[in-house]
Amino acid sequence: MSLSAPLTQHIVRRPQRIALLQHIAEQGSITRAAKSAGMSYKAAWDAIDELNNLAATPLVERSVGGRGGGGAKLSEEGQRVLRLYQRLQALQAQILEAAEDASDLDLLSRLMMRTSARNQLHGRISAIQAQGRNDRVELALAGDLRIEAQITHDSTQRLELAIGTQVVALIKAGWLELLTVDERAAPGENLLCAEVQELLEDPQGSTEVRLVLGNGQTLCAFAEPAWLASQCIGVGSALHVSFSPANVLLGTPV
């Protein structure tokens, strides 16, 4: 089974995050792996969540009783990706030697952009419906989950989107609204069922809520501590996640 195009691009562009897999395999601990990779514990889990979301199946699995706390291990797919990364390291050395000038590498660096969006979900386009100047684009995620994005028709053409195109949906954490399981989203809004995986205090006073979807992909949202307390929300609680299709940005591999 081949890797998805978004994950392949990520391997090339974000080597530190892929190298984190090697540290996890060697140490079996998120805490120690993050330290070895020069990352904070939180940054390490952000990287793992992103990698798991871009892969067809999760690359890293939580394990109980890991050495040093924060236990984790690579899945079979994670081990396969790690072997691929190690081969890419050798190829990268050859490419650097072949560059004619340092400006060549600067140009490539500018062309390969990063994104500020915390949530990145890999999927395929399953439908495109024209709505005036905009298009309503349906994405099929892993596990038969579906979301919709609203983009301009010009964007659809510029990205050369079609049924079956692989894309990455980008959603900022602040654009997600958390609802109880008894609440429903407003008409036309996306709605996903999720389980609270972790609650982290945020310096701004809100709480960062890490959520896992039924397909194993993860989301990050923010919520007021008072609301979480009033609804007795904790790790393992079920929630609904709502967001507007207009707040779903789409990206394709270059």
Automatic annotation (TrEMBL):
Supply the InterPro entries for this chain.
LysR_HTH_N (IPR000847), Mo/tungstate-bd_C_term_dom (IPR008995), ModE (IPR016462), ModE-bd_N (IPR003725), Molybdate_resp_trans_reg (IPR051815), Mop_domain (IPR004606), Transp-assoc_OB_typ1 (IPR005116), WH-like_DNA-bd_sf (IPR036388)
Keyword list (alphabetical) reads: Molybdenum, Repeat, Transport
Q: Does the keyword Heme apply?
A: no
Q: Which SUPFAM superfamilies match?
A: MOP-like, Winged helix' DNA-binding domain
Presence of the UniProt keyword Acetylation in the record? no
The Mop domain is annotated at 114-180
Spell out the family assignment given in the record's similarity comment: Belongs to the ModE family.
Mind telling me what this protein is named? TOBE domain-containing protein
Q: Which organism was this protein described from?
A: Pseudomonas fontis
